[in-house]
Design brief:
208 residues; 10 helices; globular
Length: 208
């Protein structure tokens, strides 16, 4: 996995990933205050660890019971898994849009490249997708994808992980998408998604 993808993902999804124990209480408090000031929900506070346990073991239902389970499982995972294992697993299972799961599939789908070879701007684009894979799909919504990529680049610069020159260079470039050679066109996308849904309901996300 490219070091730039790891950096970009942490910087945009969970800045305190290496400091907290699975649940970021400071992040929760900050998100609560921001929501209070705005009068509505403007940001979430889920850590990478929470997103991972939700993806592996839970559903996306917005119930208090699910949120409590998510927090408890995240704390347990943080106690037993290293940060590298948590981040590596997250990057290998998270959805990057449609039937694209995991960073290797995303790198091949959008750039015809191995994940280990991603550049700063490529990593920034991919790291920005999990927040809303449909909204930021670079082939369907290139303008939104570009804005999101630049948000990720700004986060990397704010955290001093890239220089001003690197930031300015990357922001000045286009998306740089390339068609994948490895994959052919998905001829029956609705049927494929139906089969995925059936398998997930029967065997769970981790088996899928």
């Amino acid at each position: 996995i490219s070091k730039w993808l790891k950096i970009a993902t942490v910087d945009v999804e969970d800045k305190r990933f290496y400091e907290h124990g699975g649940v970021d209480y400071q992040g929760i408090a900050r998100a609560f205050l921001d929501d209070l000031q705005a009068g509505h929900v403007v940001q979430g506070a889920s850590t990478i660890t929470q997103q991972l346990v939700r993806n592996l073991y839970l559903t996306d239902s917005q119930t208090l019971d699910r949120k409590i389970k998510e927090a408890w499982l995240a704390i347990q995972m943080a106690e037993h898994w290293s940060k590298d294992k948590i981040l590596g697993t997250y990057l290998n299972v998270i959805s990057y849009g449609g039937v694209t799961y995991g960073c290797e599939a995303a790198a091949e789908t959008y750039f015809d490249e191995h994940c280990s070879q991603l550049t700063i701007r490529q990593a920034a684009l991919i790291a920005g997708l999990p927040q809303s894979p449909t909204q930021y799909n670079p082939r369907k919504h290139p303008a939104a994808a570009l804005d999101r990529r630049n948000q990720v680049l700004a986060a990397m610069y704010d955290q001093n992980h890239i220089s001003l020159a690197q930031y300015q260079h990357a922001v000045g470039l286009g998306l740089g998408l390339r068609p994948p050679k490895k994959f052919t066109r998905l001829r029956q996308p609705y049927f494929v998604q139906y089969v995925r849904d059936v398998l997930e309901k029967r065997y769970g996300k981790s088996a899928l």
